[in-house]
Structure formats: structure tokens, C-alpha cells
Design brief:
By secondary structure, the protein is of the alpha+beta class. The chain is rod-shaped and about 90 Å long. About 5% of the residues have low confidence. The chain has two domains: about 30 residues, no CATH class; about 90 residues, no CATH class. A hairpin with a 4-residue loop joins strand 2 and strand 3.
Length: about 140
Amino acid sequence: MSPENSIRQLVRQILSENYPPGAEFDSNAPWREKNEPEPEDIEYNLFPFEVLYYNETISILLNKKDDSKWVLENDVVQNEDLNNETIADYVNSNLKSIDKGVGINAYQYGTSLVKIDNSVTSDLHDEFHDEKLDLTLS
């Protein structure tokens, strides 16, 4: 087959598909759009944090993946109505952008979400004097 015949066949094919001239070069053409991923069932472990305790200043969260406890500075939660649900929703939805740390240095430095170790537990006991908090941390 000669090159002219190949080109003619290609032109006929394009015209027979009812596309306007130049459609094959259109960057907004439907065949160039990326397919949206199919929605998947939300897995339980995608939202690992559950609120165990909160007051006006802090929240104690349980990471359900590894049973570790974390303290959150509540001033990062952008919701005036603090409750277990709003705190957990905020943390689980913004986990990638919240600054995180481990231990007393991170807690005293003001890191928003800190994994609790023995020194953080001691500091929280000394700072808040709250029986419910003490029970939550034990």
C-alpha cells in the first residue's frame, strides 16, 4: 500500500467517526481525559485515630493501628464545637499536614500531635491534675 493510500484511509477513518477536522489534536478531547478512579470502600484503618479524652486544651487519641496514645493541642482543630467526633474527624482528615513528633521534647516545643511516652505522661499529670486524664493515660 502506498503512503498516499494509507493517508487516505486514515482520513476516511477520522471523517467516518464524525469528528471535526483537527479533533485528533484537541487536548481537551474526551479520549484524552484521565479516568477518575473508582470509589473504593473506605477501610477501617484509613482513619486510625479515636478520641479517648479531651478538655479545652488537649485531646488524648488512640491510634487504632498500633494502640499507641497521642496528645493533640486542640488549638489546631478548626472547629468551635469541640467533641470526640469533630476532633477525630479533624485529625484523621488532616493527618498528613499536622506536625507530628514523639516524646517530651516535641510536646514542650509545641508540636501539634505528639506520641505519648513516659515523660509526656508525667508532664500531662503534673500540668492538668485530672483523674479522668490519669485513667486514660494509664
